[in-house]
Amino acid sequence: MMARQICRSLWLSWRPHRLISKSAMDVRRLSMQPPTMHLRPRVFPTSGFEIIDPCQKVEEERLPFYKQDDYYPMRMGEVIKDRYQVVAKLGYGTGSTVWLSRDLSEQKYWVLKVHIHTLKENQEIKVYRHIAGASLGDHPGREYVRRFEDSFKLKGPCGEHDVLVMVPLGMSLRTLQEMQKDAVFQQDLVLRAMDQVLLGLEYLHEVDAIHTDLHADNLLVAITDDSVFAMVEENEVDTPSARKQAGDVTIYVSQYMLGGAGPLTISDLGQARIGRQHRGNAMPIPYRAPEVILNMPWGAAVDAWSVGLLAWDLLEKEGLFRIYDHDCQEENDAHHLAAMTAFLGPPPPEFLRSSAEAKKYWNDEEQWHGPVPLPSKPRLESLATRLAGKNRDMFLDFLQCVLRWRPKERLTCLQAYFHPWLRGEGS
Ligand SMILES: Nc1ncnc2c1ncn2[C@@H]1O[C@H](COP(=O)(O)OP(=O)(O)OP(=O)(O)O)[C@@H](O)[C@H]1O
């Protein structure tokens, strides 16, 4: 519902960066093949595309720790396992490239997430298997968490790559947000998004999995109109995507897929953890919960912290926290904790007593004595937001219920789902 509304409003104002030009008839012809036939792979163009200057970095090449040899050198049109023909590139990440493929035996489209070969242990596959083994198939949050259909190993020139076969999904909530006026969503869309995210997280927590990496890039809108996949394929044949030749390897520019309006899907479980209690570093820096920064044991409540920051980011132009120091982790932590103290007030004494690390930042009287000054930020409850009246009060109350120093005091995802702001008691 949410995505349908977003897409409808976007449809007029936004065009994919590569237009789909083949007629719907051609697409229909493709999908009307008899279902049992093993299709012959089609030939993809070897010319007619923009060739990007080899000096320019493209997509995964721009990532800080990119090493070409780690990634599988996929070629457009390649047939994997004698079954999946790669028909478009959909994305990339620090650990993978992601491709739309046509199943030559089942007349379906699948996404292949092809991991780098250097992962010692594939956490994402481990987590998916754990979730699949949990008998909670009828949980209402299950449909909001990405699943995989199959996995296999793919031999590349430098090593073996894990491949996840998944249902194709649409663009990320971040991409949709960037297309909105002023790059923020209207409140009713945020409420719907938060509902789905909270149910999805509640499902993960029920099966003892913690996501730890929740933000708008990892929330993908499911596609309801399957004809989009064939159109994306046709588009790749008609107007092949721009690419760059880097030695023997071709780096392609990804396509977006816009196709109707399915639910939001929590994706990328590569950082997820199994079990209730953990220690050590986790979470992207600006989203890091205080117990993680202070090296305390942490659990599912870190996701509730991220939920608060996600809600803020979807509604407001500037994030609450950011990366303060790119070069020095300690300086960054000090700034981050100082900003939290300004927004939330000082942490409760029992929270400080449970972390040896806390002594670096607060003295025995619980006064801040960290290496950086406390910023003069207003407290969370007095922040100006784009909302007004009762909506604003409820939104700030919601934030105060999830952005709490003590993890035990944060609402669980299920409790947060029932917060009055999300249950429409605002306006
Ligand atoms: N099922 C899917 N359908 C369509 N596109 C997808 C799908 N899964 C992933 N993508 C695209 O590929 C991109 C990378 O996927 P993902 O975040 O899972 O990779 P990653 O390598 O684990 O990334 P990270 O850098 O966060 O570790 C996503 O941002 C999205 O654009």
UniProtKB/TrEMBL annotation:
GO terms for MF: ATP binding; protein serine/threonine kinase activity
All residue ranges annotated as the Protein kinase domain in the record: 84-422
Keywords: ATP-binding, Kinase, Nucleotide-binding, Serine/threonine-protein kinase, Transferase
Gene Ontology BP annotations: regulation of RNA splicing
Pfam families tied to this protein: Pkinase
Tagged with keyword Magnesium: no
Positions annotated to bind ATP: K113
Keyword Nucleotide-binding found: yes
GO cellular component terms, semicolon-separated: nucleus
Gene3D superfamilies documented for this protein: Phosphorylase Kinase, domain 1, Transferase(Phosphotransferase) domain 1
Source organism superkingdom: Eukaryota
Protein known as: Protein kinase domain-containing protein
Species of provenance: Purpureocillium takamizusanense
